[in-house]
Write a structure and sequence with these properties.
CATH superfamily of the largest domain: Glycosidases
CATH topology of the largest domain: TIM Barrel
Largest sheet: 8 strands, parallel
Number of helices: 11
Structural class: alpha+beta
Distance between the termini: 111 Å
Bound molecules: beta-L-fucopyranose
Low-confidence stretches: 1-27
Mean pLDDT: 93
CATH class of the largest domain: Alpha Beta
CATH architecture of the largest domain: Alpha-Beta Barrel
Radius of gyration: 31 Å
Number of strands: 34
Helix content: 10-25%
Number of domains: 4
Amino acid sequence: MTFKSIITSQIASFCLTTALLFSYSNISISQNIPQAVGPVPTENQLKWQEMEYYAFVHFSTNTYTNQEWGFGDDDPKIFNPTQLDCRQWARVCKEAGMKGIIITAKHHSGFCLWPSKYTEYSVKKSPWKNGKGDIVGDLAKACKEYGLKMGIYLSPWDRNFADYGKPEYITYFRNQLRELMTQYGDIFEIWFDGANGGDGYYGGSRGTRKIDRKTYYDWSNTYKLIRELQPKIVIWNDGGDRADLRWVGTEEGYVGEKNWSLLNAKGDVPEDMLRHGVENGEVWVPGEVNTSTRPGWFYHEYEDSRVKTLPDLMNTYHHSIGRNGTLLLNFPIDKRGLIHENDEKAVKALAKAVKEAYSVNLALNKKASATNIRENALMFNASKALDGNKNTYWATDEGITNASMTIDLGKPTLFNRFMAQEFIRLGQRVKSFKVEALVDGNWKELAQQTTIGYKRILIFPTVKASKVRFTILDAKACPLISNIGIFNAPQILTAPSITRNQTGEVSIKADDPESLVYYTLDGSIPTTKSAKYTGTIQTTGKTTVKAIAVEASTKKSSEIAEEKFDIVKKDWKIVGIADEKAYKVIDGNSHTAWYQAKTQALPADLIIDLGKEVTLTGFKYLPWQSTDGVIAKYQFSVSLDGNNWTVVNEGEFSNIKNNPLLQVKTFAPSNAKFIKFTALKNTKNDNWAGYAELDVITK
Ligand code: FUL
């Protein structure tokens, strides 16, 4: 190349660059906006993700038969709510901070909560409103009034319909879908349960119907129909073709810590993929965490005392919304047709705790710097993650997948939660990140984690620091961080739990590991001046333990927990039963249980050698918290030698079926070295005898 030609080519390239710069200056490319990476959410998926928290309601004939799955043969006449009020459901959900309600319009039993033209197995044949009612319609109105969105659960499996399993059912199913998708306004989500095919009533034939979950429902055409009728909907489907949303593989209320909103386009989705998504998946299918306020989905009176506690619900919140999921929390509607007061109380407590924890973002509008800022710094600088605007974000240069931003809190500040959000419109990118705090001039690592996605919340012990450093360690492409939150959540101060094991060691546990615990052993009221709990306390005889949980910084304290323990069970021996597990009955742990073998017909005896003679005035029985082996009729006998027995008390545990709580029975003082608890009958009239705990009351 000659000198002249070099000069000419340089001039040419200069002109080209100038021309390009000039021509780009008015279009978005000059703003250096990042391109999408991998699959991205649709507008409907984005809107759904932003809802974060919404309700499920399970209500059907099952509510009146104490079942979880109706067989399809229950008489619609049993469906007779006396105070059904969808406005009450909507009010509770609204006050709980939820954004919508998904109703079981038809569960597996086939019973329809709306008067479908295509079946008689519905509210039409129930006494409720003389067969003129429409619960889906009532809920649609209530949701509108309270500013909530409505969703529909329509079970693909129908145990009532005679032709289930044949092509005729698909026509029926689509007819019902058409009714639900056209008669009740906008539907934000449709839920197709994965439980499919099996035995049922099937119009009276009472057989077993097997279907191929993948082909039978011809999902692609069913989806087409739904999207035509409800263009703004998202489809949830566990099984069959890929839908818009995925199950997370458990009903326990959590998704994996690592949670990609992506799946493979085809092929099976094993549990591990449901839980974590697929890093390099080809389709955007985010996870929805579904769980109930109680063990069951449908209402059972015996679960009134088993509504999840505030610490449980707060964990669920963090393990769903805090892990790039949404939370679909179920209310089993009770027999009256209402959300039960215990469930209402629980979700309101959760709403209050969430508000207290997350309403003050200590990072909002604080100063921030970054090790890398994408060219066009004004648009992508670190402060864009702190401006409270979900549409702006901190971005790094193309190819930079490792960068830090430092937030200056201005002064030493207490905090214990960190939240990050990616700008997912352009894909989920972050693979791993860490959070550090500047404490006394040194950087201290608070947490290291994997994915972020729409929202990620990290929890760590309270720290006081003036600066926080957030480092992306690895990402699929330049990270786009739309929001950072730093919070100082108050401790959840619920009364601590107090237990004592067989050897007499007392343990006290606060729900928040950061709470301090103070206790007394003499019946006096515990205060912050009482003994501080630092480890198990050895006790030897009758003891009353009272305890409080206290937040050190505010000195706020919980309600007082109190447990009265009788004699120590150290020398107790279970007589004539070889199964070591039987000792769970006296281990002081209400979460462990033991059952007498099912083959053994009731009555069943449980004999305990107390090790020494004592004067008894009563006993306590705690059934295992399930419906099995709950003893309803009993006999209690004492003996001094283990051979000659005297029955000192017998009778029934009233209402134990509906309320399986601790049972306390007293009797005239009787001397005993041995006790015999005889299970005469259980609530199911079968041969199980189950025990969580058995204890005595001495004089
Ligand atoms: C499950 C169903 O079988 C349960 O009854 C409940 O509806 C739950 C939400 O999904 O798969």
